[in-house]
Amino acid sequence: MKYARLIWVNLIRNKRRTILTVLSVAVALFLFTTLRSVVTALNAVSEVGSESRLVVSSAMGITFPLPQSYYERLRAQEGVESVTWANWFGGVYVDPSNFFAQFAIDAETYLPMYPEVVVPEDQRAAFLAERTGALVGSGLMERFGWSLGQSVTLQGTIIPGDWEFTIRAVYDPNPASYGDQLFFFHYDHLYEGSNQQMSPGWYALQLADPNSAPEVINRIDAIYENSTAPTKTETERAFQTGFVTMWGNIGFLVQAIGTAVFFAILLVSANTMMMAGRERISENAVLKTLGFPDGLLFVFVLIEAVTITLLGGALGVFGAKAMFGPGNPMTMFIPGFEVHTSTVTLGLTIAIVLGLVSGFVPAFQAMRLSVVQSLRRVA
Amino acid sequence: MKIPILYNLRSLKERPVSTLTTAAGMALVVAVFVAMMALSNGFRAAMVRTGSSDNAFVLRRGATAEMYSGIGRNGVSIVAGMPFVARDANNLPLISPEIFVVLGLRRLNGGLANVVVRGVSARVMQVRDNIEITEGRAFRPGAAEILIGEAIIDRFPNTAVGDTFKFGGRDWTVVGHFSAGGSSFESEVWGENELLMPVFRGEVFQSISFRMTDPGSFDGVKQTLEDDRRLFVEVFRENEFYASQSELLGQILNFIAVFIAGVMAVGAVFGAINTMYAAVSSRAPEIAVLLTLGFKPGNVLSSFLAEAVLIAFLGGLAGCIITLPINGLVTSTTNWNSFSEVAFAFRVTPNVLVNGMIFAVVMGLIGGFFPARKAAKQPVVVALREG
């Protein structure tokens, strides 16, 4: 474009102002990208829950256990391929602030049902062979600097005492949103350590056909409706989504903050463009006198504004993308936290809109400029 | 001599658009800051107000939350017989051995929430003194009756007085609502401990709260109970225990507030710097005149700083005003420590507002400093020539 140089000269005429505006757009879009990534990552966490698996938990709430006897009965249900169970352990590693989730699982049935947990074959065998063995997420290993074969002691909170485990296997999650911060150990170990007082916290069921889910759910809940331990059955995805919604209305919070950020930064960039416009009244008058059409001046100002905001936007969006690469500290709280491509696109679109809106008034003024009056003002 | 502030006021009026846009930008930043602080403040207030420093709170040793704890009946009678447990007029100990369970309930607006059901002793109103029945009456010992905390009556179905609430395989009649001074107890359902015990976990309580005869001797009380070989417990001051339950989430909320507002503030400060530089360069001749008249560069510096602070102050004020309506708005989140939902209100306190204003003024000072310094250092001759 033959006018590129003209726009460039205008941009660098007041370097400090341009840079400051670019930076303020950059921080705003960095914030936007981060916040939106929280929402997309949380959604990904709910979606990691499979539609073809069901979770059977106590109707009274997830903290109430279910009888062991349910296992055989659930397994016999039509449409159910396999059944496994797990318990929340809630142990403390050295200090309560080192929080991570620990599950006691029936490994023989659990691991085949969860292909998300990717374990090397030899380590899997070693874990299965040892009752006090533990299967640990790669992220958790890194977080505490653990190594394979190391002993780890957890303090029990539900069942008091020191619980010692030996790390026999390390898994990598696939997909990443499954989380690499989990700690698995054998249910049998928990059962014995609790003086045979434990029973499964929840059952997971693999369905032969996901479409049969509603029917199977109703059937199971009907069986136990009038028992001492009624059940609540739902798809794993619904179960996971339930956890995410417990945080509260994060979507709304992020939207409200995002809107405030957008307008705050719109004011900054609009102000900049207006200052630039005011400085250039006489120049624009000269350009017009030279024969530049009104529409072209309008476009010049808009392009200038969009250049500034797009530059800032790219800086903020890609800065966030670079910062939240694989293994960033946020993944400790939200598994698989990353900047989604859709967030990048949206961020850049917002930057462009920001430029167009903030440039509109000065561009309009430049277009409607009366040559005679503006030249007179300078003289 | 100081340059009169009137000069700055008039200058601001000379360029209303850029003054207003800058102030409005700051107002939004302050509004977000105040709103986030009000959120974390409300959550903290609900947790900190829970429990009293006059009460001791007993958990099984090693249990980090009530949910994980278990204390048998003989443990309760050992504690109840201790001389430091306060007694009422009939010489009965002011003690409440409690059942704590979380139930998964559907919210009215959809979604699942975990609600605490607490079995308390019939004398709980004397053990905890900020509990008030706001509607209906207290439950009768031995009857399947429950009280519902004020914070959750609008959030869940079947909570009106006279309604029937179903859990644990039987029906419970709602006989009253209660308030607890804005504490997290208001997010709970209360019934009688002896009735709730068999419904849930059998012969075990989760915690014991009791009134101490002398709250000042808490350390001795703690020592005696924790050293008692018949017990296996840990003792806290009741209010300190509940405050500790919220510590992590409170810190996270505060961090989020500071992070978001901090990042936004950087953007707003850049905007303020732009505005002030523009102000300084367009008024170069004026500044030169001021300097010629004998005002010291220091006076010019403070005058321009004052102007920047003035803009920020206006913005801060507007930001505070637009956040006032959220005061009292009830929201909820899950306290993962106790695995239960806590409903709490946004609290826009004077303290939060003052912090918001300080935040604004600091933004103004930072944004105004470099432009003001440039104004003060301007060579008079050059500046006059420019005009």
Notable traits:
heterodimer, A: 379 residues, alpha+beta, 10-stranded mixed sheet, 14 helices, 10 strands, elongated, B: 387 residues, 11 helices, 49% helix
Principal-axis shape of chain A: elongated
What is the overall number of helices of chain A?
14
Main beta sheet of chain A: strand number and arrangement?
Answer: 10 strands, mixed
Main interface pair? A-B, 52 and 52 residues
The overall strand count of chain A is 10
Mean pLDDT of chain A: 89
What series of H and E elements makes up the topology of chain B?
HHEHEEHEEEEEHEHEHHHEEHH
If you compute it from the alpha carbons, what radius of gyration of chain B comes out, rounded to the nearest whole angstrom? 29 Å
Low-confidence stretches of chain A: none
> Which structural category do the helix and sheet elements of chain A fall into?
alpha+beta
Give the tally of β-strands of chain B.
12
**How much β-strand is present in the residues of chain B?**
15-25%
Question: Which overall shape of chain B is indicated by the principal axes computed on the Cα atoms?
Answer: elongated
Nearest-angstrom radius of gyration of chain A?
A: 30 Å
Strand content of chain A: 15-25%
Low-confidence stretches of chain B: none
Report on the architecture of this protein.
The complex is a heterodimer of chains A (379) and B (387). Chain A has 14 helices and ten strands. Chain A has 379 residues and is α+β, with helices and mostly antiparallel strands. In chain A, a hairpin with a 4-residue loop joins strand 6 and strand 7. In chain A, helix 2 packs antiparallel against helix 10 and helix 12 (294-323) packs antiparallel against helix 13. Chain B is an alpha+beta fold and 387 residues long. In chain B, 49% of the residues lie in helices and 20% in strands. In chain B, strands 1, 2, 3, 4, 5, 6, 7, 8, 9 and 10 form a ten-stranded mixed β-sheet that branches. In chain B, strands 11-12 form a two-stranded antiparallel sheet. In chain B, strand 11 and strand 12 (340-345) form a beta hairpin. The model of chain B has no long low-confidence stretch (mean pLDDT 88). At the A-B interface, helix 2 and helix 10 of A face helix 2, strand 2, strand 3, helix 7 and strand 11 of B.
